[in-house]
Amino acid sequence: MNIQPQGNTLAVSGITELNAGNAASFRDQVRAALVEVQNNIDIDLSQVEFVDSAGLGSLVALRKTACERNGRVRLINPSPHVQQILELTRLHRVFEIVRL
Amino acid sequence: MRQFLAAVPLPEDDLHAWELMVTEAANNAAEYATEAGRQLTNRLEVFCREREIEVRLTDHTSGFDMPAQAELPSVDSEKGRGLFLIQSLADEVEYLRGRAENCMVIRKKRPAPAAGAPPGTTSAVDVGSRFIGDEQTLQAMTEELASCYESLSAIFRFSSALNQPQPTEEFAATWMLELLAIVEADWYVLRLADPGGKELRLSASSLPGNLDFALSLLPDASSTGSVELRSAQSRQDVWFDASAPLMLGDPLSHLVRHSNGLAHPIFAEGVLVGVLTVGRLSTDAPFKAGQVNVIQTFADFLGIQISNARFRADHLQAQLMARELQIASNLQRSLLPEKLPQMPGFGVAGYYHSARQVGGDFYDAIAVDGQGLLLVIADVMGKGVPAAMFATIFRSHLHARLDLVKRPGEFLTWLNRSLFSDLDRMEMFITAQLVYVDPTTRRFQVAGAGHCPLLMTSPGGSPIEVGNTGFPLGIMFDTRYSEEVRDLPADARLLLFTDGVTDTENAGEEMLGTEGLKQNLQLIANRRCNAAQTVQEMAIMLQTFQGKKPATDDQAFLALASE
Q1: Would you call A53 and B82 a contact, using CB atoms and an 8 Å cutoff?
Q2: Second label for B500, Cα 20 to 30 Å away, from A45, B73, B195, B396?
Q3: Residues B39, B101: contact at Cβ < 8 Å?
């Protein structure tokens, strides 16, 4: 996993799966990487093949963190399967899903 | 799990759905397991059915009440989406609560197989339809699977070999040995029914003794107690073992007295084509259901092979016949003169159209002594090779006695006597008409043997019929043919023809008839057409008359006209 500060945004990439096994650690690592000036989080989901409800939970947790900083979470290029799960759980309504 | 389902196979979307559903269920089972339950193993079972996949997962939790439709938590909740996802992606979800364990049952329909999917897919899936976590069961399953796959793959190789043309005996012998190995049998006997279905003849056998005799399938045949015959007659499997041993009268009993096995009838399109008997040299190790299945499947394939082989033989026969007809047709066409001789003041032209591949019509014009001309038209009764053969014989006889051309009646009498025995033996006959035209005397002599009279006319005239009919050649040995002598006017037209011309039918099934032919001939004569033109015009007239209706008989005519 790569975490890159880009101004007021923290860019997270290189994730291949988000499940019960790694969701908590993913959430904690991203939170730990956030510095004072950053209120936005960009999460590159293009390489994520599998996401389960725990993985979704970690995304929701990070969104809460960003909201507390008056920022937002953007999900970048989710695969069709991940997009389908986001839509199924209506989370596509609260995350900004970006195609770059 | 994913790999297992991928081998089913399932499309990518379904694989994703199953992976997610099972993950969610398993996560819940692990997360909410009781203290004691954490020491226990959860069992995952996958049932691959033809139309659906079912997964059962046991858990050792305190259980929960399954809502009819789980609700999504608030968007801020980090938990509580698992059950919702399972219900959304599955077609049916049940949660069975038990004392020792609970079980979640998830079902999802399989997509309809694409058209043209290999037929083996379903069988392979059915074979592997149970995947049980229990070690022992799993091992048994694996062995069964391996054995079934071996059988299936043998059957597939067997079926692909079916496409290779080879003699049935050779084919059977090769594959029966393979069958023995697969089903762990010791011997086999394969008998095939003769094409008439009267008896079973030995095709191949692994037994050393002499079995090369036929078993009669006729109802009145004395019963020998043969399991093969009983299977053929009852059209059912006949089993033999310790409780029902081979009878003493059974030819097999001398060779394999203490055996168990079965005689299986083989059918091709519902018709008995043979009996396959397979056995083990022991009475206490019967074939298992799966092995019986393999034997029956092999026998079915063999039936297809036999059926194919017979079809191929029929096809070959048809090809030979077509070839024979082609030869006969070539032969017959070669009889027709390439170029007709002409004589001073008169031209001669001929026309021949064969209704089928080979007919027996024949015409010729032979110049004699550089002066006179013999016109010949004949029709051998019948079609095909014999008709063409007799046309050939007729022609050679004709050319053998050209000294008789000036006396056509005598010529016919001689031809009749020469051809009589051959024609009589074949129950065939030939109608013929000989016309000798002498340009110097401007007369012609006609003799007929059962043939329709020729037509003679001149421009502005009207056609008259000339010539006796008499008996065809080959009817009466002693027939004497007389001849008629006529003057040949300078502008005369003669038309010799076979009855295929007057019998030509139009779309309304009306025949052209002699009157129709006369009218057309007169129209052509009035235009003073020469012989070649007359033939051309007559051909067009015939084709126009019959339209699209195919000719049922050969059509031939020979025209003589002043140039």
Answers
A1: yes
A2: B396
A3: no
d(CA B24, CA B14): 15
* Share above pLDDT 70 across residues of chain B, in percent, rounded to a whole number: 86
**Contact between chains at A53 and B24 (C-beta distance less than 8 A):** yes
What is the per-residue pLDDT for B151? Answer: 57
DSSP letter at B189? E
**Chain A residues with beta carbon closer than 8 angstroms to that of B13:** 81
Provide the domain limits for residue B501: 336-562
Task: Look at residues B296, B312, B328 and tell me which one is the last residue of a structural domain.
Answer: B312
Together in a domain, B302 and B341: no
Which CATH number fits the domain that encloses residue B407? 3.60.40.10
**CB proximity B110 to A under 8 Å:** no
- The verdict on B122 and B174 lying in the same domain is no
Chain B residues in contact with A20 (beta carbon < 8 A): 23, 27, 31
Is B24 an 8 Å CB contact of chain A? yes
CA B264, CA B123: separation in Å to the nearest integer? 23
The answer on B485 and B379 residing in a single domain is yes
**How far apart are alpha carbons A72 and A42 in whole angstroms?**
9
d(CA A6, CA A8): 6
In this prediction, residue B496 carries a pLDDT of 96
One domain for residues B118 and B182: no
Question: What are the residues facing B375 on neighbouring strands?
Answer: B365, B435
Q: B382 and B508: one domain?
A: yes
Q: How many domains are contained in chain B? A: 3
Tokens 């509580």: give the residue.
Answer: B80
pLDDT range class, residue B492, cuts 50, 70, 90 = very high
Residues from chain B contacting residue A88 (CB–CB below 8 Å): 85, 88-89
Q: What would the pLDDT profile of B407-448 be if each residue is shown by its tens digit?
A: 999 999 999 999 998 888 888 899 999 999 998 889 999 999
Do B84 and A89 count as a contact with CB atoms less than 8 A apart? yes
Q: Evaluate the omega torsion of the peptide bond into residue B9 and state whether it is cis, within 30 degrees of 0.
A: yes
pTM here is 0.44
Chain B environment of A31 (Cβ under 8 Å):
none
Q: Measured between CB atoms, which of B13, B16, B27 is closest to A54?
A: B27
Nearest C-alpha in B relative to A24: B78
Mean pLDDT, range B380-393, rounded to an integer: 77
Q: Does residue B122 register a pLDDT over 60?
A: no
Predicted confidence at residue A48, as pLDDT, reads: 93
Q: Domain tally for chain A?
A: 1
The domain of A66 spans 2-98
* CATH classification of the domain holding A6: 3.30.750.24
DSSP string, B489-530: -TT-EEEEE-HHHHT-B-TT--B-HHHHHHHHHHHHHHTT--
Tens-place pLDDT, residues A52-91: 999 999 999 999 999 999 999 999 999 988 988 998 898 8
The pair of structure tokens assigned to B215 is: 């078993």
Whether residues B401 and B296 share a domain: the answer is: no
CB contacts < 8 A, A to B, total 51
Residue B298 has φ and ψ, to the nearest 5°, of -60, -45
Q: CB of A91 within 8 Å of any CB in chain B? A: yes
Q: Which residue in B19, B78, B88 is closest to A60 by CB distance?
A: B78
Check residues B109 and B168 and name the one with the higher pLDDT: B109
Q: Which of B13, B78, B81 has its CB closest to that of A89? A: B81
Residues B191 and B271 reside in one and the same domain: yes
